[in-house]
Amino acid sequence: MSLFLEAARGGYTSRAPIWIMRQAGRHLPEYRALKERHTFWTLCSTPELACEVTLQPTRRYPLDAAILFQDIMTPLPSMGLRIDFRPGPVIEEPIRSRAQVDALHLPHPDEIAPFVPDAIRLVRAATDLPLIGFAGAPLTLATYLIEGGGSKDFATFRAFLRQQPRAAHALLDKLTAQTIAYLNSQVAAGAQAVQLFDSWAGLHDAETFAEFGAPYVARVLEAVTGAPRIYFAVASQHLDAQIARLPIDIVSVDWRRSLTDARRALSATTLQGNLDPAMLLAPRDVLRRAAERVLAAGAVGPHIFNLGHGIMPTTDPATVEFLVDLVHDYERHQHAPNASAAPA
Ligand code: CP3
After folding, report:
1. Whose C-alpha lies nearest to ligand 1, atom 48?
2. Residue 5 — left, alpha, or beta (φ > 0 → left; ψ -120 to 50 → alpha)?
């Protein structure tokens, strides 16, 4: 079995497997070259191109997993939403009323982005590396749909939750059903793990997350059981108690806290993370020390090395190569809680 899947299933591996959030995309010159000839949406919606972009980082670096090249917005056009990328998502008609929510369509599962299962089958045929599928968590998708795009503080969205809570719940309910069908179609096509991105969970206080976030995440994770489930909520330390109760196999930790602290507070056996992406822009000795701190904190249990959020587009691929080699060469066993019990 691959090291990634072993760790994803809760095994203590001889070394930490590594993949990198947003590894497929803008930091790679070969991705930027394809972007000169195709729009982002063409890259996503053409299975051969999505497969090619998925594989690009795996050709350059000896990574332990591939992540499907798509966006968290991918399943939404099939609900009747018009979304543009400039380069972040822009919603042509942001959702501001119950009538707009009611007009959203829940397509037959085969009609949710059918190019995604096609791309997954192409990737599985082209590589033996485990393939991670993904989706956006309902609350994070709703953040973009109601705000209309990215924002500093998502004030329109946060106000909407208070002004029209019933419309918000109706939207979250539809997004939950769509996300379950979408993730299950990825698993059926061959995705071997799935990650739920809750990039904007941390915007909310615990009471708001308990009402609008956690119940929908729980429904998604409970309904997707065919592959290990990774949950990534950015800046969410104040939500630990709720996250610890979710049916998660792997918790992905952002860079703001230590893995030691996360392991204590959260229930998932396997941790993923959590090097600050900015460290990839630091001098090599600074990067090395920071990566070794993450590896040492991770080594007391099952750990998948990753960044604490997406790689920055200005990162030099040579630095990524240095990091992947460093993680591969790291001796974990000296750090294991019971070194003699750790498998050789
Ligand atoms: O990880 C991977 O390599 C797979 C590809 C991937 C993309 N988006 C491609 C992409 C993944 C996993 C995502 C997830 C995603 N998309 C998230 C969750 C992760 C996170 O960073 O919090 C979010 C919030 C989005 C929404 C989104 N899409 C934003 C904010 C942007 C702006 C640009 C950026 O890269 O952050 C996008 C566009 C986008 N998605 C690009 C890529 C490669 C850039 C498009 C371009 O090349 O012009």
Report:
1. 87
2. alpha
Residue 131 Cβ inside 6 Å of ligand 1? The answer reads no
- Is the pTM higher than 0.85? The answer reads yes
In this structure, the residue with its CA closest to atom 12 of ligand 1 is 22
Q: Is 21 in the pocket of ligand 1 (CB under 6 A)?
A: yes
E strands along the chain, which residues?
A: 66-67, 83-85, 89-91, 131-136, 193-198, 229-233, 250-252, 270-275, 303-307
Give, using CA atoms, the residue closest to atom 8 of ligand 1.
Answer: 71
Q: Which residues share a beta bridge with 270?
A: 250
pLDDT tens, residue order, the chain (344 aa): 899 999 999 999 999 999 999 999 999 999 999 999 999 999 999 999 999 999 999 999 999 999 999 999 999 999 999 999 999 999 999 999 999 999 999 999 999 999 999 999 999 999 999 999 999 999 999 999 999 999 999 999 999 999 999 999 999 999 999 999 999 999 999 999 999 999 999 999 999 999 999 999 999 999 999 999 999 999 999 999 999 999 999 999 999 999 999 999 997 789 999 999 999 999 999 999 999 999 999 999 999 999 999 999 999 999 999 999 999 999 876 666 665 444 44
Q: Which atom of ligand 1 is nearest to the CA of 134?
A: 12
CB distance 254 to ligand 1 below 6 Å: no
Q: How far is the CA of 18 from the centre of ligand 1 (A)?
A: 19
Tokens of 269: 């056996």
